[in-house]
Amino acid sequence: MAEWRLRPRAGRCARCGAPFAPGMAGHTLLEPEPGGEGYVRLDLCAACHAALPEAARRAASAAWPFTVGAPEPRGGRARGAAGPTAHVSAEGVLRALLERGDPRDGPAAYVLALLLERGKRVTERQLATDAAGRRIHLYEARASGDLLPVAEPPLAAEDLPAVQRRVAELLERGLRRPARVARRRRAPWPRGVVRRVRRERG
Predict the structure, then answer these.
(1) How confident is residue 47, by pLDDT bands cut at 50, 70 and 90?
(2) Residue, of 36 and 149, whose pLDDT is higher
(3) Containing H/E element for 46?
């Protein structure tokens, strides 16, 4: 879903270039990409959004207000801490699954997005359909303002137990990376052993 890889919230207004400071309010607009299947994201300060013509606001596919939060401390949160750490882990796993782009991860990514939405860590901002006819849910991470495109998979009731086990495994162990296969090296010749080549006399 390369066309759905929307950039994170900008650090400056797309119109006037004013930087977004912590606590500052603004508006995000999604506009259809010309000639494409994705969307273009515009992050505007309150003044530039208010100055937009009414026609430009109606032309947007989706729009919502935002408030810039304080930057997270370096190093993140410690592992094993109680409380919100579980939500942060779930969001990290979801981001890793979306970045990997494996279609087999679709059901687990969708369930993780629903869990995060229920925990009010992400908010659905747009529901669209791609060229293959799949429903794409655009979720916004409340902490960072990033947009996470999640495809809705065709899930049957009998598939849910397996998907739930997969999600529980991901939240417990994380996303495992394939182990690198070490190349076998040839055993060196023992020291002191000399290979002699006898030449035949003509």
Answers:
(1) very high
(2) 149
(3) helix 46-50
Whether 37 maps to a domain, the answer reads yes
Alpha helices (runs of H) in 54-180, residue ranges in sequence order: 54-59, 85-100, 106-118, 160-173
Same domain, 169 and 78: yes
Q: Which of 23, 51, 71 is the last residue of a domain?
A: 71
Q: Which domain holds residue 79?
A: 74-173
Nearest to 60 by CA among 82, 44, 83, 79: 44
> How much is the pTM?
0.66
Helix (DSSP H) and strand (DSSP E) numbers for the chain: 5, 6
Instruction: Kindly report, residue by residue over 109-131, the tens digit of the pLDDT.
Output: 999 999 999 999 999 998 988 87
Instruction: Report yes or no: 17 and 26 within 8 Å, Cβ to Cβ.
Output: no
Number of domains into which the chain is organized: 2
